[in-house]
Amino acid sequence: MNALELVNVTKRYNNFTLDNISFNVPKGAIMGFVGENGAGKTTTIKAILDLIRIDSGEIRIWGHSSKKLPMDLKAQIGVVFDGSNLHENLTANNIALIMKNIYPNWDQKVFSDYLRKFQLPNDKKFKDYSRGMKMKLSIAIALSHNSKLLILDEATSGLDPMVRDEILDIFLDFIQEEDNTILLSSHIISDIEKIADYVTFIHDGKIVFSENKDELVYKYGVIRCPKEDVKKIDRNFVVGIRENSFGAEVMINNVDLFRRRNREFIPERTSIEEIMLFISRGKEAKA
Ligand SMILES: Nc1ncnc2c1ncn2[C@@H]1O[C@H](COP(=O)(O)OP(=O)(O)OP(=O)(O)O)[C@@H](O)[C@H]1O
Predict the structure, then answer these.
(1) Would you say the pTM of this structure is higher than 0.95?
(2) For the chain, what is the HEC assignment?
(3) pLDDT surpasses 90 at 280
(4) Whose CA is nearest to atom 8 of ligand 1?
(5) Mean pLDDT, residues 79-104
(6) Which residues line ligand 1 (CB under 6 A)?
(7) In sequence order, what are the beta bridge partners of 249?
(8) Which ipTM was obtained for this model?
């Protein structure tokens, strides 16, 4: 069962198109949603949350059309946006009062526990919080209304590695509950490598892949060879080329089939970060 399904979703802006994207997030999984600046991550998340109107396609949350999601299910989605939009003059205490009215399932005890755990003062105004504190407060809110689906847009960016680790642990705790699901967009691939079960890579408004994280690194490989050998490699397998003064690195897809067909070149293991970098740069050789 999927918590989230996107089918052929298209959204056109003047200079950008979210182009016919499809991917699923299985219930109980953490989906890492990665892509460079402007690739379309926030647009996708806004579409999922029905904050923008899509031009075509279908989005289903727990099997319901996102446009017709019943209120009680809507209340089970915890959302954190980068640069939280909480009012500057509110304190955590004020926010708790507001959230109690917004969410029928608001759990004050859980919220207070998170404030303590994150060492967030009750009475300090939001504008006087540090970036890390603001992010933690947003996460505490998202986790305090019995959410079963967390949608996090760059929730760990701009935070130091220790705070990031602390927050990633909270996400891992959250996912221990069998039915809980996370969609986490991030620039920080190491965070995704640490906690995600699946990775969806969006590039220039299109989905390049949406796959199980562990299988991904077996599908791709890097061949290191002299520049003049690049042309011997079957272009159908090539997803990206990088050249430097020592030679060339060629990222290939479908490594198993490549190995069976070709004994001359031996692809080496790679990482999600490298796969993304190569694919973003394209098939033309670049230093
Ligand atoms: N309301 C809008 N009107 C016109 N263009 C928009 C609007 N919102 C977003 N865009 C454009 O859509 C593109 C994708 O933006 P989006 O915020 O989805 O990217 P992103 O992957 O989240 O990037 P980042 O990692 O930088 O946040 C950008 O070119 C942006 O300028």
Answers:
(1) no
(2) CEEEEEEEEEEECCCCEEEEEEEEEECCCEEEEECCCCCCHHHHHHHHCCCCCCCEEEEEECCEEHHHCCHHHHCCEEEECCCCCCCCCCEHHHHHHHHHHHCCCCCHHHHHHHHHHCCCCCCCEHHHCCHHHHHHHHHHHHCCCCCCEEEEECCCCCCCHHHHHHHHHHHHHHHHCCCCEEEEECCCHHHHHHHCCEEEEEECCEEEEEEEHHHHHHHCEEEEECHHHHHHCCHHHEEEEEEECCEEEEEECCHHHHHHHCCCCCCECCCHHHHHHHHHHCCCCEC
(3) no
(4) 43
(5) 84
(6) 13-16, 35, 37-43
(7) 224, 242
(8) 0.95
For residue 44, the ligand 1 atom closest to its alpha carbon is 18
Q: Where are the domains of the chain?
A: 2-211, 216-281
CA-closest residue to ligand 1 atom 16: 40
Pairing of strands 56-61, 2-12: antiparallel
- Residue 287 Cα distances to 220, 230, 272, 277, angstroms: 20, 14, 20, 12
- Read off the pLDDT of residues 134-160 as tens digits, 9 standing for 90 and up: 888 999 999 999 999 999 999 888 788
With b meaning 16 or more CB within 10 Å and e meaning fewer, what string describes 233-258? beeebbbbbbeeeeebbbbbbebeeb
Do residues 11 and 47 lie in contact, with contact meaning Cβ atoms separated by under 8 Å? Answer: yes
The second-level CATH assignment, the architecture, of 2-211 is: 3-Layer(aba) Sandwich (3.40)
